[in-house]
TrEMBL record:
Broadest EC class assigned to this enzyme: oxidoreductase
SUPFAM superfamilies, per the entry: ALDH-like
EC number(s) on file: 1.2.1.27
Transmembrane segments: none
Annotated organism of origin: Vogesella amnigena
Record-linked NCBIfam families: MMSDH
Molecular function in Gene Ontology: oxidoreductase activity
Protein name: methylmalonate-semialdehyde dehydrogenase (CoA acylating)
Organismal lineage: Bacteria, Pseudomonadati, Pseudomonadota, Betaproteobacteria, Neisseriales
Amino acid sequence: MSQLPTVKLLIGGEFVESQSSEWREVINPATQQVLARVPMATADEVNAAVAAASRAFNSWKKTPIGARARIFLKYQQLIREHMQELAAILTAEQGKTLADAEGDIFRGLEVVEHAANIGTLQMGEFAENVAGGVDTYTLQQPLGVCAGITPFNFPAMIPLWMFPMAIATGNTFVLKPSEQDPMVTMRLVELALEAGIPPGVLNVVHGGPEVVNAICDHPDIKAVSFVGSSRVGSHVYHRASQNGKRVQCMMGAKNHAIVLPDANKDQALNQLTGAAFGAAGQRCMALSVAVLVGEAQQWIPELVARAKSLSVGAGKDNPDLGPLISCTARERVTGLIAKGVAEGARLELDGRHVHVPGYEQGNFVGPTIFSGVKPGMSIYEQEIFGPVLCLLAADSLDEAIAIINANPHGNGTAIFTQSGAAARKFQEEINVGQVGINVPIPVPVPLFSFTGSRGSKLGDLGPYGKQVVLFYTQTKTVTSRWFDDEASSGKVHTTIALR
């Protein structure tokens, strides 16, 4: 075990070996091969990372916007040049297919590109002569040290949602990647330093609950961004908020799609299949529930046939589905499938016994489809985070909308229809933050913000886009008056009004 590579910490511009006595293994989920060891950072190491970020902030906040932008212009080019290398690392440790790994990186790359032009969103406001000789203007200034806690399912995209936007707006950053697949994140961090991010502006610590709590508690960290499960996200939000920090938490989901009988059948079924089973269902934006309205309920056999045609295998072989992240994840998903059967749902397609030649130890679950699912069943109430699609029936669009609005989550939803009137009614009445119309996974491009809602989000402002600029900056309002010599001697006023 001592010969395995170790994942380093990044503190003050240096990659350092942790002195921790607690280490975990990074495991290839297709083979169970141990790829590396990752440390659970000590309290002193976390403090050192925050201290390095605090020192760097004093100069970084004064770095011209253009100089910061040029770093991210260089960074996006380096990511493009290393795309295949990054995808191979991501696939080995996370399991997703090479094509999906490149998609993971590319969606993060889009945010890096946006970070290079973020200065236009940091401009303040100015009003001249709001009172006699008085001007008022606002400044958007960085907060200081910010931190990010990222999940296993998008180890490239979500770190790239966080630190580029925070750093481009003048903050410094402490990143805690998922301990399950930190290697591609660390390679992205290496490229960020190569692009010119100065020492201490970006720091990385690894760990579990103790490190998460240390980030929530540290008095010098001003803001925390989190993506992950609802259980951990709720803990992070409340603990960090109680310590006076700004917090944004993107959490669990149960995303629904409505399929109307007037939808283009082939397009709707193809998109539903891809959105339900892509990335083995390990997406917070996966379409894990479809509400089939009226005659669309007759399409189930064709949906099952499409799902059966998907290939399952090791990500490096570029199948349609790779493995789940861990043995524990596989056991949880197969256990929920068994519970769905026990609770009365009809198992249309069972993916529990998929066999991948040469990868007998892999954490594979094939596409699984339940029909006759009803609210209250475990497979409906819980986020399965696996390749399991639940089908519900409704007699009308109104009934389908009511089903979705009754669910506590609000990450994303979609409708498949050729009716403009139905689509407009849906977008107006649905109580979910991100809506797709014939678009199965409605994650917005970085010009906009990720706008999950209700039980899927805590905090007012989302990651990337215009909203995250407000999250990572504080507004300072300046009211200014300049006197010439003749006007400097006047009557004393004791009222609050400007004159």
